[in-house]
């Protein structure tokens, strides 16, 4: 199952109406698009999938919709983050029963968590859910940063088999990867998020790219992954550099708002991000359209 956590894990949005009801047809289209591109896994209900804004019922529906569309062709990694440990366990069991192949767990909190609390939370969920679990280290949203020592301890649990870690600037990537490898087993998969630094993470030896852009435009992202896996550093960097106009827009406006706008511009859905997140205004949406057109993305 460790292969689920290698290569390109593509994270689509979860199109829904203003009441948080998932649009089954639109989500199915997005999943089919990823399967056609032969991504290595689909990261459902990640941050880009706005898991924190959906009810338990709609999260389960989203997994069922995606599993039906995937029909076993591409593994589903499902986000199960929740404030309470018992709720994360229920979400994990829901995901398993609805067709997930693995789960992704972030330490969601209101009161800041200690390392001891996070370790206990992850161990309890891993014990109860019965699926391979990937640690989701996303301090920008959870305000909790995993130390290498904590990831090392969690990696000793037989069901905790991977980490989705934030990427660093190019010069720092080898050191970050080495620090994690020094405390985890050889089979533990170390992958990275942060799209604009992902090429360097792969070049440094990261096992996976957990990609926002890949959830909408998988083909150029697959090109980067394949080049890095083949050891063609120049091709990987060139393919990444070609996407810099989008990376700049991600950094300025947030990747979530940009991919929602792009999905609508492509006619893949008619959905806005969940309130209170606002969609891009007309001027920024036009900028998004111009960049998509200039890069020949579709």
TrEMBL record:
<dbReference type="InterPro" id="IPR013785">
    <property type="entry name" value="Aldolase_TIM"/>
</dbReference>
<keyword id="KW-0456">Lyase</keyword>
<comment type="similarity">
    <text>Belongs to the DapA family.</text>
</comment>
<feature type="binding site">
    <location>
        <position position="48"/>
    </location>
    <ligand>
        <name>pyruvate</name>
    </ligand>
</feature>
<dbReference type="InterPro" id="IPR002220">
    <property type="entry name" value="DapA-like"/>
</dbReference>
<dbReference type="GO" id="GO:0008840">
    <property type="term" value="F:4-hydroxy-tetrahydrodipicolinate synthase activity"/>
</dbReference>
<protein>
    <submittedName>
        <fullName>Dihydrodipicolinate synthase family protein</fullName>
    </submittedName>
</protein>
<dbReference type="Pfam" id="PF00701">
    <property type="entry name" value="DHDPS"/>
</dbReference>
<feature type="active site" description="Proton donor/acceptor">
    <location>
        <position position="136"/>
    </location>
</feature>
<feature type="active site" description="Schiff-base intermediate with substrate">
    <location>
        <position position="164"/>
    </location>
</feature>
<dbReference type="GO" id="GO:0005829">
    <property type="term" value="C:cytosol"/>
</dbReference>
């Amino acid at each position: 199952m460790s292969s689920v956590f290698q290569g390109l894990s593509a994270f689509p949005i979860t199109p829904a109406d203003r009441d948080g009801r998932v649009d089954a047809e639109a989500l199915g289209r997005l999943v089919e698009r990823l399967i056609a591109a032969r991504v290595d896994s689909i990261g459902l209900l990640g941050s880009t999938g706005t898991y924190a804004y959906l009810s338990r019922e709609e999260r389960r529906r989203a997994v069922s919709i995606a599993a039906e569309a995937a029909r076993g062709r591409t593994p589903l990694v499902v986000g199960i983050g929740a404030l309470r440990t018992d709720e994360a366990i229920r979400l994990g069991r829901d995901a398993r029963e609805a067709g997930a192949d693995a789960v992704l767990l972030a330490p969601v909190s209101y009161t800041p968590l200690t390392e001891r609390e996070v370790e206990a939370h992850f161990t309890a969920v891993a014990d109860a859910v019965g699926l391979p679990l990937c640690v989701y280290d996303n301090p920008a949203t959870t305000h909790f940063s995993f130390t290498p020592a904590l990831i090392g301890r969690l990696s000793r649990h037989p069901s905790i088999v991977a980490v989705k870690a934030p990427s660093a600037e190019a010069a720092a990537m080898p050191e970050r990867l080495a620090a994690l490898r020094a405390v985890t087993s050889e089979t533990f998969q170390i992958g990275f998020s942060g799209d604009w630094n992902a090429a360097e993470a792969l070049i440094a030896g990261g096992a996976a790219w957990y990609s926002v852009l890949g959830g909408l435009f998988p083909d150029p992202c697959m090109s980067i992954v394949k080049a890095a896996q083949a050891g063609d550093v120049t091709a990987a960097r060139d393919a990444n550099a070609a996407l810099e106009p989008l990376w700049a827009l991600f950094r300025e406006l947030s990747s979530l708002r940009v991919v929602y706008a792009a999905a609508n511009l492509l006619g893949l859905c008619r959905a806005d991000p969940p309130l209170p997140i606002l969609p891009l205004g007309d001027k920024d949406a036009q900028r998004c359209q111009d960049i998509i057109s200039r890069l020949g993305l579709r």
